Amino acid sequence: MKNVFTVLLISTFGSLAFAQQPKSNLQKNLETLEISSDSLNVVDQEILQESDSVLVDGTKYVIAKELKTYGYADHPQAKKIDSIWMSEFLNAGLYDTIYTDITNLTFEPVNDVDLPTDTLKVRLAKLNQKTPFNVEYNPSLESVIKMFLKNKRAFLTRVMARSKFYFPLFEQALDNYDIPLEMKYLAVIESALNPKAKSRVGATGIWQFMYPTGKMYGLDVSSYVDERSDPIRSTEAACKYLGKLYEMFGDWDLALAAYNSGPGNVNKAIRRSGGSSNYWNLRPYLPRETAGYVPAFLATMYIMEYAKEHGFEDYGAEAAYFETDTVRIKKLITFDQISEYLEVDREEVQFFNPSYKLDIIPFIDNKNYTLRLPRKAIGRFVANEDSIYARVEKELLQKEKPLPELVETSAQIRYKVKSGDVLGKIAEKYGVRVSELKRWNGLRNNNIRIGQRLIIYPKKPVASSTQKSSNTSSKSASKEYVVRSGDSLWSIAKKFPGISVKNIQEWNDISGSKLTPGTKLVLCKC
């Protein structure tokens, strides 16, 4: 078709993707390269490299960035609809908990915090007007708020960044179950918004469900999946549980206390207090952790509602919850495969899919397991679904076949990157994964340069000429290096292309970064 052009778009991950656009959309710039399929003078589109040039109807273009790995593209019209829908909607690295702080709250006055008591009283009164929680001022609450502002600032900053993704999800579910929207702050106290959080007694997920309670509210736990770590399903379960607790006590403060310590402990406190139903009157009769639980919740609510006034920066999320989408998985697929095929960081796949315990999405009859990613990535997955599953099947078959007898999988070779190479091509040539290439060579992304030397442990036969050159390279790499004064692991790694700090640590059994002058370091896996 003369009027249809192959478009290469620089994605948010720094790679290029293919799509189709009419000729009328042609723009001659490096952000949007549109190339006629009839005049594209490169044999294989997957080997386009930075600085390669292509001719488009007589005009020369230079590729701005390397095409990484597989280059699956989305359908442009479907992508456009996603973009329009999102526009309409938006216009209408560790488990960090404050358990210790809550348990050990002393409610002593805190100095050196710029928050006058009169100002705090006014702000709490405003909060109290718009929430069913009892947010009236008292000295104990003031001490917790000031302690958080003084000692937990880094913690709160990280939580606020995570909240940009999770809070819209929580608010939707809370609204559906007629639960106060401020209950979203409970997840901050429970897990610091970490779906992988696990307490010392086994409570798991953002809402910290114990195994029996999770099962009671429909959360499945198996070898592959723990739905207590699924943000959507666990939030639904938390809403149901909180609704039941409110039915029991008729008070949201007491429902909070019961969520933490159990309804039985709250009932005992009511009896011991002589029948009081006010949390602050019950607090002396509650377990120590629960005694600080509601104040910590209210303090978190106050600080996050008045974050700007206390100098917290407005960190944007990598992707808002409503900017993500899901697709039902039709075959077992690993996070490594998803990362490589869609050019999404493995850590990002983990972030959006925390309920899969082994970094594998299983396929089981009568079960609906889904993959959640930003809409652009899900669009590419759906548009190339058959091809992706074919690759998965091919890899599975390769794993099931025994390796040829003459292949020594532990043999190391050094590969010199040539023009046109990308990690996906190199990995396929030697029967390894892109993630393995990156790990062996300390690569943080898929960028490689011509002349760079890569360490490879091939899993399938290579040509004799390659083996010969690799043997020579291995010998040259097997030399020792004597540490000199001023050397560091980083500076030594820089002297030997293809060798990373991690390589040196592994080959020499080094756990830290301290080096002693005169030490001999092995520079290969000998």
List keywords for this structure.
mainly alpha, 22 helices, 526 residues, 3-stranded antiparallel beta sheet
General description of the model:
This protein is mainly α and 526 residues long. Helices cover 43% and strands 10% of the residues. The protein is built from 22 helices and 13 strands. The chain has a three-stranded antiparallel β-sheet with strand order 2-1-3, with no helix packed on it. A two-stranded antiparallel ribbon has the order 4-5. The protein has a two-stranded antiparallel sheet with strand order 6-9. A hairpin with a 2-residue loop joins strand 4 (53-56) and strand 5 (59-62). Helix 5 crosses helix 8. The longest helix has 24 residues, at 153-176. The chain starts with a strand and ends with a strand. The model is unreliable at 1-70, 82-97, 402-410 and 463-478 (pLDDT under 50).
Structural class by SSE content:
mainly alpha
Shape: globular
Q: How many helices does DSSP assign?
A: 22
| CA distance, first residue to last residue | 56 Å
User: In percent terms, what proportion of residues is strand?
Assistant: 5-15%
Give the helix level as a range of percent. Answer: 40-55%
Low-confidence stretches: 1-70, 82-97, 402-410, 463-478
C-alpha-based Rg, rounded: 28 Å
- Average of pLDDT: 75
Largest sheet: 3 strands, antiparallel
Strand order of the largest sheet: 2-1-3
How many strand elements?
13
